[in-house]
What we know:
The chain is mainly α. Helices cover 66% and strands 0% of the residues. 11% of the residues are buried. Belongs to the IGBP1/TAP42 family.
Amino acid sequence: xxxxxxxxxxxxxxxxxxxxxxxxxxxxxxxxxxxxxxxxxxxxxxxxxxxxxxxxxxxxxxxxxxxxxxxxxxxxxxxxxxxxxxxxxxxxxxxxxxxxxxxxxxxxxxxxxxxxxxxxxxxxxxxxxxxxxxxxxxxxxxxxxxxxxxxxxxxxxxxxxxxxxxxxxxxxxxxxxxxxxxxxxxxxxxxxxxxxxxxxxxxxxxxxxxxxxxxxxxxxxxxxxxxxxxxxxxxxxxxxxxxxxxxxxxxxxxxxxxxxxxxxxxxxxxxxxxxxxxxxxxxxxxxxxxxxxxxxxxxxxxxxxxxxxxxxxxxxxxxxxxxxxxxxxxxxxxxxxxxxxxxxxxxxxxxxxxxxxxxxxxxxxxxxxxxxxxxxxxxxxxxxxxxxxxxxxxxxxxxxxxxx
Length: 404
């Protein structure tokens, strides 16, 4: 980020530089602290210049603010978000300063009627504070944020398309003097874009404010316990607590191992060895199969899920592939049964093919009728041969020949 002199810069240029620093700091996780502090100073200078110039008043509404000054409403939000990224030993002071700027931004947006009504009802002291209400508010806030991001992207694409068409028209038709302002007259679109940006910043400000409050509470609790018990004793208590939990986990794991260890697979060789040594009999062949492995938490092993939640929990650690439904021995026996059935059917078909009923497909007629049919066929064939001898092929076409 280049060097710039804040004292000599006008408000628009200073705000542009501070906006670039804020964008760089929010998009990248690791930012130089010197750049962050420079961005905070630039935003503080912008805030001071806005107050001196009196750009905004509590008596005004959002319709009274000009399009050029709308972007300066984001200065407290940028300053609060950038202050949170400052690295300092006293983290609580940083959190307080960031929360103060975010609250200032939300209060001014509330005065300008830019904060949704449901946000105001929830932030009120007597507003709903149950888990269900907070969850519904977060979902609604997330939807507003997504809608604002989509709208900004749509405005950006529309502006780029218009810019390309304007450039093409300018190349084909020369622009007369005084027509530049007519071609670039997009004040309504710019105003809509800044209002959408402010709406998106309001959603992010509420989320960031809740996160900073929780972090401040955690740090205060940590410091109170540390000051009460002492630094060394506090760390020792944390280590002892972790050691106790690790010992309890290992102790419970030793008790769970008998449920989680898979059974040893049974093969044909082991079953045959058991039969030879008298530990099993041939009648137990149908019981000789693999036991399916049981996956999942030990609390659900061998249990019957009674609710949809338990059924889904039992399916968490299931394998990604299908488990076998039968053992290799069962598959071999099934295949042998299919082959025996197939061979029996082939033998039956061969017997039917070799039987007298299959060979005698039609009953033979009387011999006298066959002889009469044969004589009639012979007479017909002889008459046809005699006719062909008397009428050779092409004899009827002699009149069509030139010399006929």
